[in-house]
From TrEMBL:
Protein name per Swiss-Prot or TrEMBL: GCN5-related N-acetyltransferase
Superkingdom: Bacteria
InterPro entries reported in the protein's UniProt record: Acyl_CoA_acyltransferase, DUF3335, GNAT_dom, YpeA/RimI_acetyltransf
Annotated source species: Glaciecola nitratireducens (strain JCM 12485 / KCTC 12276 / FR1064)
Domain N-acetyltransferase: 16-162
PANTHER family hit by this protein: ACETYLTRANSFERASE
SUPFAM superfamilies linked: Acyl-CoA N-acyltransferases (Nat)
GO molecular function: acyltransferase activity, transferring groups other than amino-acyl groups
């Protein structure tokens, strides 16, 4: 669907009451729909359905005891995203900030339902609505061609509502965008070190130097990724105290490598990391870190980086290092150094740029990779990699 928004909807709001719709509101809802839309209307029957549906949120805006607008959000089962399906305000009530108030209320209610992202479609020829969505923090990530009955295209927007909700309460945490496809580990480590020590170098030379110290030499294809012990040694060499939590330290990434020659070299590198870590006195816990330990470390101001699988992001089982920046009652928050195109799939997770061929130009996309919210209940499935179900995290502390 879309939004019936006009240029005057971004001014001061008066006394407006926002509440959930009931069956007694059907006449008013039908009247608003007929008044606001010429095409793609919701029928009275569909309005009735969404009032009663458990996977829908239908909010009304009342002013002086008159219903002047509504917003409808759909909650897809199994998804962490919500979808704004329709938003409408009567002509006589425009210019009073009612549409933004409705949308912010819907975001709040969606967040209560454990949704982390809000998505919507808006007609390409509706600049007033587009301006409002951008002002409220939505970013364009794609387009549906000839989406509306009129033949108009629909721009697709998304907002990380949990991330936005927490942004003002989080401490500053530096974010670094990796400059190659294989240096997520060094980039995540650099973010944690910079958080602990402001004069930590934040440049490509440091990124590549850390990778040279920590690389496994080979991966499934191309350049090798970074071993947790290799990253721990790189942090140790730079004056930090590093603890490693890993369910295994041998044969971490060899399953995805076919060549026995490459596997033998990776094992040699790995054994060298083990011996160096022992000589350096790096504490290695051969078990996974618990959520309570992560939260305790964050509360003490330590840096944490974690290996995840990108399967939930791009459908590919690739190991990827991220920094954990913050925790609250609901979520862990990640700094993702990838910084690609910022596109998302239907479940609200980010897509590889090659998987979104029809995406529009993205704007301010770096923000989409900072303090990325992950529900605690989802973290266990995100932070496991490979057939061996590897789980590994590094806790970085200031050096003594």
């Amino acid at each position: 669907m879309g939004a019936n928004i006009h240029a005057g909807d971004a001014t001061e709001v008066g006394a407006v009451n926002l509440r959930l719709a009931t069956m007694q509101d059907l006449d008013a809802l039908e009247s608003i729909e007929l008044s606001c839309f010429e095409n793609d209307r919701l029928s009275r029957r569909r309005m009735s359905y969404w009032i009663k549906a458990e996977h829908g949120i239908l909010v009304l805006a009342e002013k002086a005891d008159e219903i002047v607008g509504y917003g409808l959000v759909i909650l897809r089962k199994g998804s962490r995203s919500a979808r704004l399906y329709s938003l409408a305000v009567l002509a006589k009530a425009r210019g009073q900030n009612i549409a933004p108030a409705l949308l912010m209320k819907l975001e709040e209610l969606a967040l209560n339902e454990q949704r982390l992202f809000m998505r919507l479609e808006v007609a390409e020829d509706n600049p007033a609505a587009i301006k409002m969505y951008k002002k409220l923090g939505y970013r364009k990530f794609g387009i549906y061609r000839q989406y509306y009955e009129t033949g108009a295209d629909a721009l697709r927007f998304q907002k990380p509502i949990q991330q936005t909700n927490m942004a003002n309460t989080m401490k500053y945490y530096p974010w670094y965008k990796q400059t190659t496809e294989f240096t997520c580990g060094p980039s995540a480590l650099m973010m944690a070190m910079k958080y602990l020590q402001k004069n930590t170098r934040f440049d490509q030379a440091t990124e590549i130097d850390i990778w040279r110290h920590a690389t496994t030499i080979f991966m499934t294809s191309g350049h090798g990724g970074c071993h947790p012990l290799g990253l721990a040694l790189a942090g140790h060499e730079r004056g930090f105290e590093v603890e490693v939590y890993s369910t295994q330290v041998n044969n971490l990434f060899v399953d995805g490598v076919r060549s026995e020659h490459k596997k033998s070299i990776m094992r040699i590198v790995e054994q060298d990391f083990i011996e160096q870590a022992k000589e350096a006195g790096i504490r290695v816990h051969k078990n996974e870190i618990q959520l309570a330990q992560i939260e305790k470390a964050l509360a003490k101001g330590f840096g944490i980086i974690c290996l995840i699988s990108t399967y939930q992001f791009d459908g590919k089982k690739t190991p990827h290092w991220v920094a954990i920046t913050h925790a609250d009652d609901r979520c862990l928050y990640l700094h993702d150094p990838d910084g690609g195109e910022g596109f998302y799939n239907e479940t609200g997770t980010r897509l590889d740029r090659n998987n979104q061929s029809d995406a529009g130009e993205s704007e301010d996309i770096d923000l989409d990779y900072q303090h990325l919210p992950i529900l605690k209940e989802d973290f266990a499935s995100l932070s496991v990699f490979g057939k061996s179900k590897l789980r590994t995290c590094l806790v970085i502390k200031p050096g003594k």
